[in-house]
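Backbone-to-sequence.
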């Protein structure tokens, strides 16, 4: 009897500790910055993450496509121009126009008409990897800034030209930005960076997904996303099972420290993706981003 109890106790402990196998398929990093302090030139003390190093990080993590943007746009162009190196690393670069030439633009852009000119110049020029596919990432530190004249113009422009928007904003600003488009947000494709970095309740996230068919949630820095063992918390798991086509993963390499952590960040995603049904994991890891930008269903 005692031996049976011991066996039973072991089985219970074993199943509590059993972890799903991490997801091992391709990843689409839908929130990547290659800012000037990462440095796109030769490796040196002042240039910690040159292009070859960045591509090696992507390759060893199974990242097969990146939504690339940078302050200023030179980093994105460098990635887009490295056609053969990117091809060798198996990485497709999806270029976005960033709205920032410098740090001051982070706050000033919603009312700065010269940003519209800069965006139009970039869109006309395109990149060596093809036309820009979207605008962003941009920030709105106060949601009313979404009503600035440049913010209005760029939301209309994005919808007219079928550009995807990558926005780091709160839930109130999602409604404000969507309202500027001709379709009232029924057609705009907008990736919500972090899906509510201030901890927007999951019910509110779901209501926004229901209201705006082109809204997607990118999950870096999302508070409350993961629980025990690095697996999804129950309400997030339920939301993803209900809306498997609406989520994306991203690194958000906004400071160099994120490049240093890049392997761990991607491994963290693989852990919770492994706890989802295979088709749901495949979509969030790769397929949703691929569909958004017309890439193959399998890289
Ligand atoms: Zn970012």
């Amino acid at each position: 009897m005692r031996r049976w109890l011991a066996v039973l106790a072991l089985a219970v402990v074993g199943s509590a500790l059993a972890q799903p196998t991490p997801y091992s398929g391709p990843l689409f990093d839908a929130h990547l910055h290659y800012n000037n302090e990462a440095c796109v030139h030769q490796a040196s003390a002042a240039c910690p993450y040159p292009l070859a190093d960045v591509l090696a990080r992507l390759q060893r993590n199974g990242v097969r496509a990146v939504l690339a943007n940078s302050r200023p746009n030179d980093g994105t162009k460098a990635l887009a121009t490295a056609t053969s190196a990117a091809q060798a690393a198996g990485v497709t670069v999806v270029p976005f126009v960033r709205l920032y030439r410098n740090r001051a633009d982070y706050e000033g852009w919603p009312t700065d008409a010269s940003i519209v000119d800069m965006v139009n110049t970039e869109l006309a020029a395109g990149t060596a990897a093809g036309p820009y596919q979207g605008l962003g990432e941009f920030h709105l530190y106060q949601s009313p800034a979404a009503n600035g004249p440049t913010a209005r113009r760029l939301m209309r422009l994005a919808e007219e030209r079928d550009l995807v928007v990558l926005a780091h904003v709160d839930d109130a600003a999602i409604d404000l930005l969507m309202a500027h488009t001709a379709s009232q947000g029924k057609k705009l494709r907008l990736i919500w960076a972090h899906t509510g970095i201030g901890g927007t309740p999951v019910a509110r996230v779901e209501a926004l997904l229901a209201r705006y068919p082109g809204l997607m949630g990118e999950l870096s820095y999302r508070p409350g996303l993961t629980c025990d063992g690095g697996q999804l918390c129950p309400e997030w798991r339920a939301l993803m099972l209900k809306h498997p086509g609406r989520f994306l993963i991203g690194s958000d390499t906004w400071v160099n420290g994120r490049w240093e952590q890049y392997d761990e960040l991607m491994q963290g995603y693989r852990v919770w993706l492994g706890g989802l049904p295979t088709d749901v994991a495949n979509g969030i890891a790769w397929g949703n981003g691929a569909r958004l930008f017309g890439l193959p269903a399998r890289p």
